[in-house]
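Sharing a chain and its predicted structure for anyone who wants a worked example. Both blocks are below, sequence first, tokens second.
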Amino acid sequence: MSDELVRLLIVANELEAEMVRSLLSTSGIQSMQRYTSFGAAAMDGMPSGAGPREILVHAADLDAARELVESD
């Protein structure tokens, strides 16, 4: 499996990110989340626990992850 991580989607906050990750996990798809500066102007560019998150998956899992997220 490719170790390259690619962006699946961007969600509004950490809670939503964890919900998506839980959905992916139930199908055996590993993922991670991280803060993204996308939309940082809303918080004057200051990173915090709130704010948009990127969901990343292995490149080999991207198509399956997209199908799963779009079907939910």
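Comments welcome. The chain has one domain: 5-71.
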